[in-house]
Design brief:
This protein has 484 residues and is α+β, with helices and mostly antiparallel strands. The chain folds into three domains: 141 residues, GAF domain (Beta-Lactamase), CATH 3.30.450; 103 residues, 2-Layer Sandwich (Beta-Lactamase), CATH 3.30.450.20; 158 residues, Histidine kinase-like ATPase, C-terminal domain (Heat Shock Protein 90), CATH 3.30.565. It is built from 14 helices and 19 strands. The strands form four sheets. It has a six-stranded antiparallel sheet with strand order 3-2-1-6-5-4, sandwiched between helices. Strands 13, 15, 16, 17, 18 and 19 form a six-stranded mixed sheet that branches. A five-stranded antiparallel sheet has the order 8-7-11-10-9, with helices on both faces. A hairpin with a 5-residue loop joins β10 and β11. The longest helix has 48 residues. The protein is rod-shaped, with a radius of gyration of 46 Å.
């Protein structure tokens, strides 16, 4: 192209300068007949200076200098130009199809000269051809560099993906060929090699409720040149559902056409399940807290009604709060396993120091799990029975005996747990003892338990014996019988 320009214009010397956009300078890429001193001086030409090439690049118009000695803006450069033997200059800008700066074609003459209009018109054709050639070379260079970067990163990516057990796909958009790694087959529920990887094989396994959104997100990323990120469900052939987070990126050539997409997908099913379990646990905690506050408020009101003094209220209220605290600790330690009736009875008697009294206290019954909703109020009832036994009943004297037993009864039309609390050897007049026991505890057993747990209760106090019977419904949960 340079030789053709020199021949067209009848010039003696010439050069091709290419535009470096990052620094806004022209760099000599090819030359003919120019001296080394000239080439060194004009090795880089700024778009802001008044050289012929600088003006041509700045204005986008061909600059013709008929006589270097008569061009005033060129005065700072004249000694170098004169030493090179140049007396006239033609600098023609090379612009891309979109007007982008690409470079300058320059011709130098040893004597004053002005090309004819016909020659300048034909020069425009050479400028256009030069622009096509430079753009083609730039595109090929960009493509080569992109492919080289792809090759360099592929091995690193492959090793990282294998180590992380992530699914990967590689979509060559020029040929339409898609490649999957083994994990991508597994994630979609295919055997390795079972199907030819393609768009349809992926879309078929996306959950029908998520498919439209997943495809729309992929199309949006392609259209808007943005990274692809989406979370969707996969419906496998066995009916199981997995959650997947997919990330990908499209790559484009110098003209903006998509040439490739690389993507990774991660199975996040376990993380989603963990988040759901966490949500359920938080909801359960909130529910328990609300219930606990309601129970504390009720205990405070009931204790206040039967207390003889502020000190008596404080003592009773403290003991009942301690009972609540014990059951909360029991609930927290057995959060995934149900609490049995025996554990509840044993806990309250142990708290009062009577769990290991041998002949004085007898505890017996099968391992029967309680619903969590029943644990709190039933533990309060047992606490009241045990406290009253210590203060007024069988545990208040040396000869008293306490029996706490429970069993399952198959009475029509339903199965029920029968808890019997029997105290013998009570000392004191029935009327006095009965009066003491007609407080919060008895109200809890005879009124609160039937209301909250559909219990049937019976409370009999004779001269030296107390018999309290609590009957609770037995229901089935997840194939297992539970009380409450």
């Amino acid at each position: 192209m340079l030789a053709a320009t020199i021949e067209l214009l009848g010039a003696d010397m010439g050069s091709v300068q290419l535009w470096e956009a990052e620094r806004n300078v022209l760099l000599i890429a090819a030359q003919r007949g120019l001296r080394q001193e000239f080439l060194e001086f004009f090795r880089e030409v700024s778009v802001t200076d008044e050289s012929a090439a600088g003006r041509a690049m700045r204005t986008g118009e061909t600059v013709v200098i008929e006589d270097v000695e008569r061009d005033e803006p060129l005065a700072p450069f004249r000694p170098v130009i004169r030493a090179a033997g140049s007396r006239a200059i033609v600098s023609a800008p090379v612009l891309g199809h979109n007007g982008a700066r690409l470079g300058v074609l320059a011709a130098h003459f040893r004597s004053p000269h002005r090309p004819s209009d016909s020659e300048l018109q034909r020069l425009k054709l050479y400028q256009h051809q030069a622009a096509n050639f430079i753009e083609r070379c730039m595109n090929e260079k960009t493509l080569r560099e992109s492919e080289e970067r792809f090759r360099e990163s592929e091995e690193r990516l492959r090793l990282a993906v294998e180590a992380s057990r992530m699914a990967m796909w590689d979509w060559d958009m020029r040929t339409g060929k898609i490649t999957w790694n083994d994990q991508q087959y597994y994630m979609l529920g295919y055997r390795v090699g079972e199907v030819e990887p393609d768009y349809a094989a992926w879309a078929t396994r996306v959950h029908p409720d998520d498919r439209a959104a997943a495809e729309a997100e992929l199309a949006s990323a392609l259209r808007e040149h943005k990274k692809y990120l989406n979370e969707y469900r996969i419906l496998r052939p066995d009916g199981s559902v997995q959650w997947s987070v997919a990330r990908g990126e499209f790559y484009y050539d110098n003209t903006g056409q998509p040439i490739r997409m690389l993507g990774l997908a991660e199975d996040v099913t376990e993380a989603r399940q963990q988040a759901e379990r966490q949500r359920v646990l938080v909801a359960e905690l909130q529910h328990r807290t609300r219930n606990l506050m309601a129970v504390v408020q009720s205990v405070a009101h009931q204790t206040m009604e039967t207390a003889k003094s502020l000190e008596d209220f404080a003592n009773r209220f403290d003991r009942r709060l301690e009972a609540l605290s014990r059951v909360q600790n029991l609930l927290s330690r057995n959060d995934t396993q149900p609490i049995a009736v025996g554990a509840l009875v044993g806990m309250e008697l142990e708290a009062l120091g009577f769990a290991d009294l041998g002949k004085k206290v007898a505890i017996a019954g099968p391992e029967v799990p309680l619903r969590k909703s029943a644990v709190q109020i039933l533990s309060l009832a047992i606490h009241e029975l045990a406290t009253n036994a210590l203060k007024y009943g069988a545990l208040a004297n040396e000869d008293g005996r306490l029996s706490a037993t429970w069993r399952i009864e198959d009475t029509k039309p339903d199965r029920r747990l029968l808890l019997e609390w029997i105290e013998r050897g009570i000392v004191g007049t029935p009327s006095a003892t009965d009066a003491e026991r007609r407080g919060y505890g008895r109200t809890l057993i005879e009124q609160a338990l039937p209301y909250a747990l559909s219990a049937r209760t019976k409370f009999d106090l004779s001269a030296n014996t107390l018999r309290c019977v609590i009957s609770l419904p037995v229901t089935t949960q997840d194939g297992r019988e539970m009380v409450g």
